[in-house]
Amino acid sequence: MKNKLIVLLAALLLILVSVPSAFSYFSTYTKTEGSKPIHLSDKTEIIETVDSAKHIVVKADQNSGPMFVRVKYFAPENKITVTPVVKAPWKDGGDGYYYYEQPIQKGEATSELELKVSGYPEEAEIDDEFHIVVVYEAVPASYNDDGTMYADWVNTEITYFEGEAASVAGGGN
Q: How confident is the model over 50-54, as a mean pLDDT?
């Protein structure tokens, strides 16, 4: 009788010891239903103001991660001359783009890139308009092994954002 009691207690003890591991198995491999949308994009906006020149600023959304920006402009070559005023940290990339060399952080904006307009033809009517279209691109910051950030313009899928075409109307310089 004593032996049966010892065996029964040993079996009970073995069961109690193994139950927590069985619970962890079942709790580790459970399924649930439902969904939650995840937005994995960084958002920016272009701010353009126009007087006798066009002034470009790119601003990151408050929820965006660090990103790098580049800007390109298009203008009618035979009608006007556009001269970018490039000041650090903007840099002429030599490929038609002007690169902002520092990453912009959430809620921050680039310094201004100014596009001076000249060569308005004498024979143009006062209400003639010439559009300078600005296109900008933004890529999330990539990281080197040492943690420094860089812009990977080659291996990144780029989404093009186009600002509104602003006009420089008659009589401009």
A: 86
- What is the C-alpha separation between 136 and 45, in angstroms, rounded? 9
Question: Is the confidence at residue 16, as pLDDT, over 80?
Answer: no
Where would I find the beta strands (DSSP E) of 125-165?
129-140, 142-143, 149-150, 160-162
pLDDT for residue 158 is more than 60: no
Q: What is the mean pLDDT of residues 139-159?
A: 84
Q: b/e per residue, 20-44, with b = 16+ CB within 10 A?
A: eeeeeeeeeeeeeeeeeeeeeebeb
Q: Note the pLDDT of residue 125.
A: 54
Could you give the CA distance from residue 46 to residue 31 in angstroms, rounded to a whole number? 44
Which residue type, as a one-letter code, is found at position 4?
A: K
pLDDT the model gives residue 32: 61
- Spatial distance between the Cα atoms of 165 and 131, rounded to a whole number of angstroms: 6
Element of type H or E holding 4? helix 2-28
Q: Considering the entire predicted model, what is its pTM?
A: 0.65
- Rounded (5°) CA angle 86-100-39: 150
**Under 8 Å between Cβ of 92 and 84:** yes
Domains of the chain: 44-169 (2.60.40)
User: Cα–Cα distance between 29 and 22 in angstroms, integer?
Assistant: 11
